[in-house]
Amino acid sequence: MTVKAVLIDIDNTILDFDQCSEEAIKQSAEHFGITLPENYFEVFSECNDKLWHLLEEGIITKQDIYDRRWVEIFKRLDVDADGIAFDSMFREKIREIAIPVKGAEELLKYLSGKYPVYCASNASRERQEHRLSSCAFNKYISGIFTSEDIGFQKPAKEFFFACASALFPVKPSEILMIGDSVNADIIGAKNFGLKTIWFNFRNETYDSYNFTDYTVNNLGEIKNIV
């Protein structure tokens, strides 16, 4: 596989969004004096994933996520609290939390020694840059592409067109996209002609034929591919 540049997702690819979120939720609940039931993180994951999928499909905006996420979660948990205020605090807390995925630093060090590495994220540029800097991953990164700068979310072709245009004269077929989201990272990149590695850390099954070039269950496997 010929590779001249790498795009890599951030959340649940090089930074553990699940662990970061859980810690941010605990800190936010403590701030507001809220006691959450034991199943709070399962409900958070379901609601958060649903809303981000709607965002990727262009059905809702990022502000809709902020306005709806914790309102819906608290309703399902039967918790009497201000969901919008909680979401604001949650985003403030998660900005300060950067827990790496196992093997992420080793992978970034390896990749950046061979190729320019760029992050590709649907999250806030300021937040992601701050988190990458706080865990010292920024030294491996040549730049970051975000949906708020481009004006389109992954998996839109316009997002990957903007990335490929910035990396010209590197061809789309010479760009490798690594990420955990089948729809946003992998199918979105594949549809634009990029090479792809799906980081399937949850060991999920996906039936669509030829939707990715490679699948790995841990980041260390990528060194055997590129």
Q: Helix and strand layout, with pairings?
A:
Elements: E1 5-8, H1 17-32, H2 40-56, H3 62-77, H4 83-94, H5 104-112, E2 117-121, H6 125-134, E3 143-146, H7 147-150, H8 157-167, E4 175-179, H9 182-191, E5 195-199, E6 214-216
Parallel strand pairs: 1-2, 1-4, 2-3, 4-5, 5-6
Helix pairs in contact: 1-4, 2-3, 3-4
Descriptive account of the structure:
There is one protein chain. The chain has 226 residues and is of the alpha/beta class. Helices cover 46% and strands 12% of the residues. The protein folds into two domains: 5-15 and 101-224, HAD superfamily/HAD-like (Rossmann fold, 3-Layer(aba) Sandwich); 17-94, Orthogonal Bundle (DNA polymerase, domain 1), CATH 1.10.150.240. Strands 3-2-1-4-5-6 form a six-stranded parallel β-sheet, sandwiched between helices. Helix 2 packs antiparallel against helix 3 (62-77) and helix 3 (62-77) crosses helix 4 (83-94). The radius of gyration is 18 Å and the shape is globular. The relative contact order is 0.17.
**Quaternary organization:** single chain
**Approximately what portion of the residues adopt beta-strand conformation?**
5-15%
CATH topology of the largest domain: Rossmann fold
State the end-to-end CA separation. Answer: 7 Å
Low-confidence stretches: none
Sketch the topology as an H/E string, one letter per element.
Answer: EHHHHHEHEHHEHEE
Return the CATH class of the largest domain.
Alpha Beta
Helix content class: 40-55%
| Tally of discrete structural domains | 2
- Tell me the major beta sheet: 6 strands, parallel
In angstroms, what is the radius of gyration? Answer: 18 Å
Q: Any guess at the CATH architecture of the largest domain?
A: 3-Layer(aba) Sandwich
Across the major sheet, the strand order is: 3-2-1-4-5-6
